[in-house]
Each structure stands twice: as structure tokens, then as C-alpha cells.
């Protein structure tokens, strides 16, 4: 009897999930390009899983001191992991596409540049307030409790590291009117010349920070070209994919660039800090693959369950992005009293660590879900009373089609 009751409840829950997914699917306008949302969702998941897989907080001094380490430093042959999960170029591709389309639509409706920019930046930075407030309080309490200053610095740096993305993205968003017609080859040429000066002619290292803007301008302006209809043919995707992959392979094999597409603590050169030519050409390959996947993703997103999952993740994109590092650190710190646990507090120098880290991923996801439950209102706004139809829910899917992109940030 008990088993049949549980089975009946599970069936009822599943039917409820399906009905909810069908409602979301039915409320989505037919002209919405669901591939855009799917690409954004995959980019978010790539960043989250990438950080969780290659970021280790090693406990030293009996657990009193934490410092960062990476399995890519101890096991460099795992570099292909970074090729799969370093998806920032797709963020900027989608962001440039959505922002340029939204700006054009805003102009057509008579919205001023200031009004459009204020709306975009408010949606972008409102969730940041919660992260900054929490970590200001946590850092102060840790300092007052006598926690090692280097440990506090390590934790705060990891927690706030996602904010660099927002600052760069906000700057590119503000410059959107100037970028509507910019050919991606121009910022690519800037990156090329900066690297030639840095690595070939001995120019000062600070010159590389020019590439923070120029490097991410490349996929952002590709997104603008997508909006203009210049990347609709599959040939464009194949050129970007094959050309970017070949250029990256050549740079790694013969020009001395690191194989890892993410930063590795202690490495002499990082492909991301600041972006190098190899990171940008790798991003071109990613953008080409993303463009080639548009049609398969559009077909896949016709399934209500798949589309509902993507839509839910997009509604919480900033919350997931901003809190995933906090979820990792909260899990690590909470379990410190249990000792130096494999895959969590130990040096990532062997495959056993990698296997143990995979086992910790569900717990990281659970803690991130708790963070999402607590802080999602900063992104989505307060929940409406149940039993009342929500105009917002129906307006969100329409936003992309009309150009307003309500609640979409990347």
C-alpha cells in the first residue's frame, strides 16, 4: 500500500511538472528564437561546471589556511577539460546579439539611449548588491575572528571573481551604439598586435590589459553581425569553427601559448588573465560551433520539458552565475571540521582527486540551489501571490522577440 501511494505521488508530481512545462511552452511567442536562450544556458552551465572542476581550495596548517590550486597545474594533460567548459565567448556572442537587437528595437519605439542603458544595467547589477553585502559581512566576521588574512583574501577573490565579467559586459553594453557596424576583424587585429608587442618585442606586461576590452569585443561584435543577418549561412559557422580551431592549435603548438584556456595558479602565462590571442581564436571556434548548433537547438527546444528547463535557467542566469563560487566555498568551509576530505581540501595532483571532485558536484549543486532560493528575488523581483495571473511571466518570453529582453542579461 505504501509503495503504491509513493508511486502515485511520484506520477502526480511528474504530471504536474509536465503540465507546467506545457504552460511555459504555450506562453512562449512563436517568433522567439529559443536557440539564443539555449546557448546562454549552456554557457552558464559551462562556466559553473568548469569552475567547480578546476578550482581547488587546499587546506594547510591543520585547516587554518586555505589557498587555491588547480588540477591543470599538477595534471596538465587534463587541459581539454578547459576547452569544453570555458564558454565565455558564447556569453559575449549571445550578449552582443541580444543587446544590439534590443537597442535597435528601443530606438524604433522612441526609447532614448539613456533609458535603454539604465534598464539594461539595472537588470545586470541589481543581483550584485546581495553578493557584495554578504561577502562584506562574511569577510569582516572572519577578520574579527582571527582568520588568516591570506585565507580571507583567497575566499573573497574567488567569490567576487565573476564580477569582472559584469564590468566588461556593462562597458560593451554601454558602447553598443558605437559597435553596431564594427567588423570583428578590427578588435582581433588589436589583440594580435598587443600579443606581438608583449611576447615578441618585450613590451610591458600591463599592455596586455588592452585585450580585456579588445578580446571580448571580438565575440560581442560577432553577435552584432548575427543580428545584422551576416552569419545566417552555415558556411560562416564552419569558417569560424575550423579557422579558430586551426589558429588555436598552431598558437599552442608553435607559439608557446598554454594549452589550458583558463587561468592556472602559478603558471607563467594565462590565456584569460588578460585574454591572449589563443583565447580569442579559441573563442572564434566556439562561436562558430554555437552558430552551427542553432538549428538543432531550435528543434530540441520544441520539447516543452527541455524549453521549460532552459527558460527557468535563463530567468536565474545572474543568480546562478554570481553565487556558484560561493556554493563551492561554503561547502568546502563547512566540511573543514571533518578533516581534509579528498577532492575538497586536498592537493589536486592525481586522478583520485578528480574522481572525488566529481562525487562532490551534486552537493555543490544543492548548496547553489539554496543560494538560488534565498537570493533569486534580487534578479526576478518579489513573487506574485499564487492564484493570480502574472503578466510578467507572459511578457518575459515576448521580450526577446520585441527587443526588450526583459530579465535577460547576457
Number of helices: 20
**Which structural category do the helix and sheet elements fall into?**
mainly alpha
Largest sheet: number of strands, sense, barrel closure = 2 strands, antiparallel
Please, how many domains?
Answer: 1
Helix content: 55-70%
Order of strands, widest sheet? 1-2
Q: Report the uncertain regions.
A: 386-410
Mean pLDDT: 88
Helices and strands, in order, run as HHEEHHHHHHHHHHHHHHHHHH
- First-last Cα distance: 50 Å
What would you note in describing this structure?
With 410 residues, the protein is mostly helical. The chain has one domain. Helix content is 70%, strand content 2%. It is built from 20 helices and two strands. A two-stranded antiparallel sheet has the order 1-2. A hairpin with a 4-residue loop joins β1 (56-60) and β2. α1 crosses α16. The longest helix has 26 residues, at 2-27. The radius of gyration is 22 Å and the shape is globular. Mean pLDDT is 88; it is low at 386-410.
What can be said about this structure in brief?
With about 400 residues, the protein is mainly alpha-helical. Helices cover about 70% and strands about 0% of the residues. Helix 2 packs across helix 16 and helix 8 packs antiparallel against helix 17.
Distinctive features:
single chain; 410 residues; mainly alpha; two-stranded antiparallel ribbon; 70% helix; 2% strand
List the helices and strands and how they pair.
Elements: H1 2-27, H2 34-54, E1 56-60, E2 65-69, H3 71-74, H4 80-85, H5 88-108, H6 113-125, H7 128-144, H8 149-160, H9 163-174, H10 176-179, H11 185-200, H12 210-227, H13 234-254, H14 277-292, H15 294-300, H16 304-315, H17 317-334, H18 351-375, H19 377-380, H20 391-402
Antiparallel strand pairs: 1-2
Amino acid at each position: 500500500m505504501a509503495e503504491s501511494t509513493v508511486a502515485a505521488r511520484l506520477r502526480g508530481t511528474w504530471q504536474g511538472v509536465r503540465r507546467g512545462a506545457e504552460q511555459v511552452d504555450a506562453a512562449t511567442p512563436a517568433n522567439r528564437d529559443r536557440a539564443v536562450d539555449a546557448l546562454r544556458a549552456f554557457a552558464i552551465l559551462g562556466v559553473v561546471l568548469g569552475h567547480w572542476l578546476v578550482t581547488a581550495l587546499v587546506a594547510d596548517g591543520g585547516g587554518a589556511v586555505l589557498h587555491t590550486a588547480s588540477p591543470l597545474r599538477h595534471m596538465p594533460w587534463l587541459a581539454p577539460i578547459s576547452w569544453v567548459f570555458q564558454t565565455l565567448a558564447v556569453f559575449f556572442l549571445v550578449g552582443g546579439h541580444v543587446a544590439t537587437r534590443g537597442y535597435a528595437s528601443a530606438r524604433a519605439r522612441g526609447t532614448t539611449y539613456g533609458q535603454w542603458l539604465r534598464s539594461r544595467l539595472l537588470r545586470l547589477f541589481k543581483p550584485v548588491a546581495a553578493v557584495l553585502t554578504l561577502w562584506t559581512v562574511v569577510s569582516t566576521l572572519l577578520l574579527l575572528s582571527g582568520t588568516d588574512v591570506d585565507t580571507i583574501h583567497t575566499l573573497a577573490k574567488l567569490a567576487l571573481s565573476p564580477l569582472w565579467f559584469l564590468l566588461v559586459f556593462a562597458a560593451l553594453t554601454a558602447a553598443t551604439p558605437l559597435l553596431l557596424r564594427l567588423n570583428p576583424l578590427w578588435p582581433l587585429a588589436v589583440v594580435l598586435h598587443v600579443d606581438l608587442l608583449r611576447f615578441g618585442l618585450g613590451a610591458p606586461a600591463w599592455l596586455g590589459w588592452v585585450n580585456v576590452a579588445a578580446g571580448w569585443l571580438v565575440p560581442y561584435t560577432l553577435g552584432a553581425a548575427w543580428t545584422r543577418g551576416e552569419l545566417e549561412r552555415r558556411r560562416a559557422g564552419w569558417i569560424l569553427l575550423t579557422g579558430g580551431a586551426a589558429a588555436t592549435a598552431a598558437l599552442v603548438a608553435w607559439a608557446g601559448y598554454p594549452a589550458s584556456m583558463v587561468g592556472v595558479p602559478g603558471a607563467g602565462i594565462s590565456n584569460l588573465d588578460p585574454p591572449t590571442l589563443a583565447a580569442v581564436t579559441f573563442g572564434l571556434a566556439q562561436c562558430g560551433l554555437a552558430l552551427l548548433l542553432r538549428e538543432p537547438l531550435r528543434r530540441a527546444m520544441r520539447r516543452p520539458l527541455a524549453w521549460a528547463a532552459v527558460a527557468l535557467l535563463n530567468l536565474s542566469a545572474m543568480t546562478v552565475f554570481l553565487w556558484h563560487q560561493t556554493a563551492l566555498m561554503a561547502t568546502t568551509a563547512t566540511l573543514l571540521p571533518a578533516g581534509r576530505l579528498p577532492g575538497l581540501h586536498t592537493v589536486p595532483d592525481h586522478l583520485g582527486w578528480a574522481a572525488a571532485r566529481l562525487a562532490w558536484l551534486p552537493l555543490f549543486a544543492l548548496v547553489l540551489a539554496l543560494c538560488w532560493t534565498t537570493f533569486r528575488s534580487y534578479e526576478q523581483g518579489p513573487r506574485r501571490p499564487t492564484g493570480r495571473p502574472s503578466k510578467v511571466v507572459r511578457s518575459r518570453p515576448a521580450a526577446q522577440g520585441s527587443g526588450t529582453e526583459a530579465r535577460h542579461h547576457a
